[in-house]
Write a structure and sequence with these properties.
With about 350 residues, the protein is of the alpha/beta class. Helices cover about 25% and strands about 30% of the residues. The protein is built from 8 helices and 17 strands. The strands form 4 sheets. It has a 6-stranded antiparallel β-barrel. α4 packs antiparallel against α5. It is globular. The termini are far apart.
Length: about 350
């Protein structure tokens, strides 16, 4: 009997080709688009990008029709609001820099979708992510890097559970992006050359500070830019406008480049310094999720990424509590940012990861 798989279809080329490949491999495929926009007006505004726009449904439905597979639009508004939008705003308000894609992957694209897929009688869910799922010799499942470094999305997937991974298929991980577009062309899919979305899907204009102020009804007050000694350097326009390592948009005339070193919500201060001041070797992180190993009993050496665009650096990871790790880098890394993830790699395999809490001086 054919195994049944629900493919999360965003209307883009990657998820469309994922559905096509799985059907070619003999799976019983159904297409699912997750309705996560909070209102029609905002969905229309993001029509040209992301997986939130109304055009996502139109394109995904067209592809499903061409592939001759059943297609559903499922309502995930509540899950998305609680686990992504509310979290996103709360992190910025508390002077942390969130990663909404990681939260969306863990709690919406996997947890909520998997639950709904099981109700539909599916054995698996599948996505168009550039990553692979492997079952390791120790019996555990792990995300592994995709064929293409340029598009690799493993960083945003470190938080998935063993149960979720055991029911996940990622056919796109075996291909380069241009290969995926060629497959779409060959299959006659009209979205073969649809551009990739770049921005945060629920903030199409990328002005997240205005979004947070509009959603919360709060105007975040101006405060002081200060140096590391507490000397006032100027006025900032509200802490939600800044992130660690930021240089642009500070509007400070100091006669030299200035960078954000820290954000202090308690005193409403943004600390400014030189570029070299943004480098550190040690951080503390919590909300640990281990993937390729069950535990870290002794310190382990890994390659660790501290943001999506970070190439990774040699690092020693040590558990210091039930849910806290200390990460010590061999060389200083730039702009360790509370709220972002630190993800551990052993070669191409994701060992696990955690949420950065603070720099350790």
């Amino acid at each position: 009997m054919k195994k049944k798989v629900a493919v999360g279809m965003s209307g883009g080329v990657d998820s469309s080709v994922a559905a096509y490949l799985l059907k070619e491999q003999g799976y019983d495929v159904i297409g699912v688009t997750m309705q996560i926009w909070q209102d029609e007006e905002r969905a229309a505004a993001s029509e040209n990008g992301g997986c939130c726009g109304l055009s996502a449904v139109d394109d995904a439905r067209r592809v499903a029709s061409m592939l001759d597979i059943p297609y559903y639009v499922l309502n995930f508004k509540k899950e998305f609001k609680e686990n992504v939008i509310d979290y996103f705003m709360d992190e910025y308000i508390h002077a942390r820099t969130p990663n909404p894609c990681i939260a969306c992957n863990r709690y919406v694209k996997w947890e909520a979708l998997l639950n709904r897929a099981v109700e539909l009688g599916c054995d698996y869910i599948a996505t168009g992510h550039y990553a692979r799922v492997n079952k390791l010799d120790n019996g555990r499942y792990a995300i592994c890097k995709s064929k293409t470094d340029k598009k690799d999305q493993t960083y945003a997937l470190y938080n998935l559970t063993q149960e979720q991974l055991s029911r996940t298929l990622m056919p796109i991980g075996e291909y380069e992006k241009d290969e995926v577009r060629r497959i779409a062309e060959k299959a006659g899919l009209l979205i073969a050359h649809k551009p990739d979305s770049q921005e945060i899907c629920f903030i199409p204009d990328n002005d997240y500070a205005s979004y947070i102020e509009n959603e919360t009804g709060n105007k975040f007050p101006e405060g002081n830019f200060v140096d590391v000694k507490g000397n006032v350097l100027g006025r900032h326009k509200g802490i939600i406008h800044y992130t660690i390592g930021q240089r642009k948009g500070l509007n400070l005339s100091l006669g030299k480049p200035a960078f954000v070193l820290a954000i202090r919500p308690d005193t409403n201060e943004v600390v400014i310094g030189d570029n070299e001041d943004t480098f550190h070797t040690k951080l503390s992180a919590s909300n640990v999720n281990l993937m390729s190993v069950k535990e870290i009993a002794e310190p382990i050496k890994v390659n660790a990424k501290i943001r999506y665009s970070h190439k990774g650096a040699p690092c020693t990871v040590e558990m210091i509590g039930e849910d806290e790790v200390i990460c010590s880098f061999a060389e200083p890394v730039r702009a360790i940012t509370p709220g972002q993830a630190v993800v551990f790699y052993d070669g191409d395999v994701v060992v696990g990861g955690a949420t950065i809490d603070r720099v350790i001086e």
